[in-house]
Amino acid sequence: MATKRNEEIARMREDEVMLLRTRDRLEFREIADRIGADVKNTYMAWKRGRARLHQEAIESFGAYVGEQLATCKQVIDGLMPMVRAGGPNAPKAAEAIVRAMDHEAKLIGLYAPVKTNVTITDEMTARVKALADELAALDDA
Asked: What are the pLDDT digits (tens) for 60-75?
């Protein structure tokens, strides 16, 4: 069982390896020599450091998206009575709501590209090759 002090030391080692690898662009052997460890442990410290930073980035991103969605909700909720009441400011309020909704849609991924599964047949490949041969013949002429 790792003690809190051992965890702190391991994290400091991971941070040092991450800096030497990313900032200084050193190879694992060079890093291992510099910190007095073997190459395998150096590589494993780098992998743990990357995984930790990746997880921290995911958590930070999630918090940021949550804050942005909450702000959009506040904007929409705040402007909706103005739109419902009508009046001279209603069109601008409606435009602001649409922009907030657009931002909200982007945040939750509604505009993300849709993946499709495309199969290329031998017939299609033959047609492309024939077209390429035709184009090549035109260049030769």
From this structure: 989 999 999 999 999 9
pTM score over 0.85: no
Q: At a CB cut-off of 8 Å and minimum separation 6, what does 11 contact?
A: 52
Distance CA 123, CA 131 (A): 12
- In the prediction, which pLDDT does 2 show? 63
Rounded CA gap, 28 and 15, in Å?
14
Assess contact for 79 and 71: CB atoms under 8 A.
Answer: no
How far apart, in whole angstroms, are the C-alpha atoms of residue 72 and residue 25?
41
- Distance CA(58)–CA(44), nearest Å, equals 21
Decide if 10 contacts 45 (C-beta within 8 A): yes
